Amino acid sequence: MTRLLALDTTTEACSVALWEADGLVVYDHTLEPRSHTRRLLPMVESLLAQAGWSLTQLAGIACTRGPGSFTGVRVGVSAVQGLAYAAELPVLSLSTLDVLAWQGVQTQPECRHWQVAMDARMGEIYCADYDWDPATGLHRTTPEQLLKPDRLTLLAGPDVGRIGAGWALPELAATGASVDAALPHARSVAAWAHELLGRDLADWQPPHQLQPVYLRDQVADRRPAAGG
Amino acid sequence: MRVLGIESSCDETGVAVYDTERGLLSHALFSQVKLHAEYGGVVPELASRDHVRRLLPLVDQVLAEAGLSRQDVDGVAYTTGPGLLGALMVGAMAGRSLALAWGVPAVAVHHMEGHLLAPMLEAEPPAFPFVALLVSGGHTQLIKVEALGRYELLGESLDDAAGEAFDKTAKLLGLPYPGGPELARLAEQGVPERFVFTAPMIDRPGMDFSFSGLKTAVRQAVARLPTPLSEQDRADVALGFQTAVVRALEVKCRRALQATGHRTLVVAGGVSANTALRAALDRMAAKERGRVYYPDLRFCTDNGAMIAYAGAQRLLAGEQVDSAVTLHARWPLTDLQPPGQSAGQAA
Ligand SMILES: Nc1ncnc2c1ncn2[C@@H]1O[C@H](COP(=O)(O)OP(=O)(O)O)[C@@H](O)[C@H]1O
Questions:
Q1: What ipTM does the predicted assembly reach?
Q2: Do B97 and A88 touch (CB under 8 A)?
Q3: B93 touches chain A (CB under 8 A)
């Protein structure tokens, strides 16, 4: 009986889910801006209480490790590091883009190709492409990237699905493609973790190995140290 | 009670275990000074990123050094301000999560209360009440301390903090960041009284400070010297600057002791590492028939031990916070209350 705690804080949404082998148990989320530090742990506590579970009964904790809002990613990663370290649980570190792709597959399984685009602010997107086949599963076909929207190669065809808030940026909205401008949520984190476990692809890690993936690494300008 | 303390308000990740019966069991620090040096100052985003990398290994290290297993921790204390929000967030979220998963109480610690209580970690700790001089990169304050959480502001800097003045002056003299300690080292080679700068505000009543005028005076003095500055010129200017700062701090501390009638002065924060300051304050206090207490040099700058200690005092008194983590970029020390249920959570 695989019990999982899943959470996502990588965008303006903040969500937590509890998952058991046969499906979702309980779930909560908030869209209140800048409330992640205040809302995340009380949500975890109250969901565990609702389900009557303790952390030590879990098989592990799954969370999105980015890309996403820098601060948001760190709220989730820091919380999971602490919870997993103290409860001595392994961690499943998942790409936010992969989780969104899986969120798309859940709603439109007929789409065999997926393009995920998250809003990366500063006029850029975090993005990746995927192939989906019920027999072989979901596979990322490009690296996770930080791009100007006009550098994104649009896939054509009736079986292409597009998901993520990046598609709502003016340059991409102008393409007229049909899209689902969804934010990631913890239910999909749990569902994707479950999919990976089912295919024996889950890469459990000790908590300190859970580290953010930002994609945007140019965050400061170097200048002479002193005397300049 | 064994308390794990976590500090991540700026550019040091500090973790420690304090035992209310046995004292400090272990402490570990990762300083990001090298990381930020090439930018000439702390880059908040880089600081936050590094805290996430360092924190758990440091927790592991302090538990191992204390000979404790993960189940032996009875409480968790973490800094929730003042400081860089993104940096605070890392330590506070991890700390609160550890407490939640261990099922032990957690407490939110004011960074400056940590500094203020750091001398309590020594073998001969000061006793309440006392006057505290907090001198760091961000603060210069004189505080009347009646008891834990009972703080009254006597005076503060109207502009730059003393540590900031040290750092800016050091930069002016071409010293590498962060220049305070470098400037103090250089001053040891200086010729006394070649440069005499007026100690700011000592001719005015009250216990406030101001250091920006002094910085300007130093700049003007440097501008009159032949360039490039010789090593001796720089040392002489450094000594002149340090002497003026120390004099200003000494005069206001004496006033604070006289105004409150307290005999005990506690000096904390990064600048309390300064040897010239310690010598001057010791002399002054002796004349006032008082005594000065300092933190160990390791606990003058940011560290986890002072957070573990301050948190332990509040936990002992029954204070704890729920799992909603609230952070404060700015948070006057005088807003603190004596220990109580859910104090430290106020917005
Ligand atoms: N020996 C010293 N003499 C003067 N200033 C010093 C000395 N050692 C450290 N400092 C100063 O202390 C400050 C750092 O102290 P810290 O308590 O970590 O401050 P904050 O947390 O406010 O940045 C810096 O401004 C540094 O230059």
A1: 0.96
A2: no
A3: yes
